[in-house]
Amino acid sequence: MTDCYTHIIESTGEKVTRAGLKDTPKRAAKAFEFMTRGYHQNLDDVINGALFPSDANEMVIVKDIELYSLCEHHLLPFIGKCHVAYIPDGKVLGLSKVARIVDMYARRLQIQETLVAQIANTIESVTGANGVAVIIEAKHMCMMMRGVEKQNSVMKTSAMLGSFRDNQATRNEFLSLINC
After folding, report:
1. Count of Cβ atoms closer than 10 Å to residue 154 Cβ
2. pLDDT score for 116
3. Contact partners, residue 92, CB within 8 Å, separation at least 6
4. Which run of H or E residues covers position 77?
5. For residue 155, which of 142, 146, 168 has the smallest C-alpha distance?
6. In the 3-class helix/strand/coil scheme, how is 6-36 assigned residue by residue?
7. Which of 47, 65, 115, 153 has a CA that sits 20 to 30 A from residue 100's CA?
8. Mean pLDDT, to the nearest integer, of 112-128?
9. Residue 18 and residue 130: Cα distance in Å, rounded?
10. How many angstroms separate the CA atoms of 154 and 76, rounded?
11. Is 0.90 topped by the overall pTM?
12. In the predicted model, what is the mean pLDDT of residues 98-126?
């Protein structure tokens, strides 16, 4: 990957031997590896046994989970927050695991529409919840730094499964609790 970054930098007309760029290909490769570390994670390791029996059957919400991802079309970041809710059915997931699931999928080359569905489907399959809701709000550098250059645009996507899809009152409660 370092050699690829060397080629990219040289393609701009720069010289990687310049003092400020001397170690940039190595640093860029290391950064890109970090930003795509979700490919080297698996769900079992992320959950790490933190699924617990519970009689809870009311909505569980984790809101404002920050996320950082890379647009698969331009390799530019999109940055935002994710709100996750589920209605337990005999099992609850360790609190930090919700954020770790978000990170695992966000740290892959991605589009937001797919990301929101991956998170919701995973929470549902892991917990067996009666319903799962996920909303992502993000700013996309591919729209802000290039192309139409719209600095204040925010993309919102949602995935509603089970009772969040089937029951308007449940969906409304979730939306009001996250102030969306």
Report:
1. 11
2. 98
3. 51, 52, 54, 56, 60, 127
4. strand 77-87
5. 142
6. HHHHHHCCCCCCCHHHCCHHHHHHHHHHHHC
7. 153
8. 98
9. 58
10. 15
11. yes
12. 98
Which residues are marked as active site?
A: 71-74, 112, 140, 142
Number of structural domains in the chain = 2
Structural domain harbouring 96:
43-177
Tokens linked to 144: 């802000």
- Contact indicator for 88, 52 with CB cutoff of 8 Å: no
State yes or no: pLDDT of 1 exceeds 80: yes
Where does the pLDDT of residue 180 fall: very low under 50, low under 70, confident under 90, or very high at 90 and above? low
Q: What is the pLDDT of residues 57-80, one digit of tens each?
A: 999 999 999 999 999 999 999 999
Tens digit of pLDDT for each residue in 77-91? Answer: 999 999 999 999 999
25 shares its domain with 101: no
10 Å Cβ neighbour count for 44? 9
In the structure encoding, which two tokens stand for residue 135, read together?
Answer: 């909303």
Given this model, what pLDDT does residue 53 score?
Answer: 97
- Looking at the fold, whether 141 and 83 belong to one and the same domain comes out as yes
Alpha helices in the chain (DSSP H): 2-11, 24-35, 43-47, 95-106, 112-127, 141-144, 163-166, 168-177
> Does residue 105 sit in the same domain as residue 167?
yes
